[in-house]
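Q: What structure does this chain adopt?
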Amino acid sequence: MIAVSRFTKEDARAEFENRGIETVSCNLCEPEQLEELEDTAKALFTAAGIGVLIGKNASFSGARGGCQAEVGSASCMAAAAVVEAKGGTPQQAANAAAFALMNTLGLVCDPIADLWRFPA
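A:
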């Protein structure tokens, strides 16, 4: 597991490392620092970016959005991460996330009448 952050507080970085999590200090808003990240960290960062977009504009909650919110979100994040890991462009990663979501629509349980789900 890798944690990537600016780590402005050394005690936060130490807490991760004490739990066996590798840390990488990087300001993700600086393109030259972003280029120095390992491919794995870039893929995780891409997945996290898609997750932020979903979290700000929709929901991860199964209670609010049905299973679609959970499965669709995870599919989007995974698809974008795979494209990043394979050297794709940001546009390709975003497209992969969109296609992953489109291909899960209607395939998993969706909310009907509050918290009821179909299929059961």
